[in-house]
Amino acid sequence: MKRANKYYIIGLAILALVAISCNTKKQEQIQQTGVLKISTLNVDTNVEVFGKSNTPNSVTKSSEAPHILNITITNKVSGEVVEYYENQTYMPSTVVLNVGSYNVEAKTANIDGQLPGDDSKVGFDQPRYYCSYDFEIREGQIETISLIAKRQTAGVSVAYSALFKDVYPCLREGETYQTTIFSSGSGSIVFSKGESRVAHFVVDSDDMTLEYQLSITRYNENDELTTYVGSRTSLPVEHLPAKIANYNLTIEILGQ
């Protein structure tokens, strides 16, 4: 009986040691975390507006629909995505993370590739917003950051002067005109007659250039419907802002 009691006491001691060890590990795990706090998370829709003379005249808020941001938190050492939110409204104001180095990225769904259902990096009324922030999580501390996504596309619209419309009224069936805008890196898009939307080009580099080309379809002297295509015209460098993203530019087509 004494030997049995001895083994019983030893067993209890082992169980106690295991319990203490497990509890210690749990405490260590709790101590090795910190908190990420998002103080601000929104989209900056302020854009610099360039008038028909291609000179800046105002900074204004664009009249765009609310934007949905994808939020991704990545461990910078392992490359593992530790948190992902399809919509910024789903993200809590605080996130518990293990101690380490991280990056948080906020972007519209189409920022790093093609437009949904399209092969190009340009589309009407499809601005793209983005921001990225590196941060450290320290044991038992709160890391507070602000995320403000800024526009990463150049907005371009086309206007036709009153003189142009007088010279090319396009009154007969089949007569029309259009302007094609070319980007050095984001492809091209066509502004058909009457198109009033803003085309957004992904800015691939700081030295991105824009060109435009006018084509007119009208009846010639033989009463045949003919399309005349003009040469490409580059926008002078001095007419472009130093930072081409986050601005709206109107190209005015003058009557010749």
Number of helices in the DSSP assignment: 2
Q: N-to-C SSE series?
A: HEEEEEEEEEEEHEEEEEEE
Structural class: mainly beta
Mean pLDDT: 79
Helix content: 10-25%
Lateral arrangement of strands in the main beta sheet: 5-4-7-9-10-1-6
Unreliable parts: 26-30, 111-118
The value of Rg in angstroms is 30 Å
Terminal CA distance: 115 Å
The beta-strand count equals 18
Proportion in β-strands = over 45%
CATH level-4 homologous superfamily of the largest domain: Immunoglobulins
Structural domain count: 2
* 3D shape: elongated
How would a textbook summarize the main sheet?
7 strands, mixed
Summarize this structure as a short list of keywords or feature phrases.
single chain; 256 residues; Immunoglobulin-like; 2 domains; seven-stranded mixed beta sheet; 14% helix; 47% strand
Short recap of the structure:
This protein has helices at 2-31, 162-167; strands spanning 33-44, 46-50, 56-61, 69-75, 81-85, 94-98, 100-108, 122-124, 129-137, 142-151, 153-160, 176-183, 187-192, 199-202, 210-219, 225-229, 233-234, 247-253. The chain has 256 residues and is mainly beta.
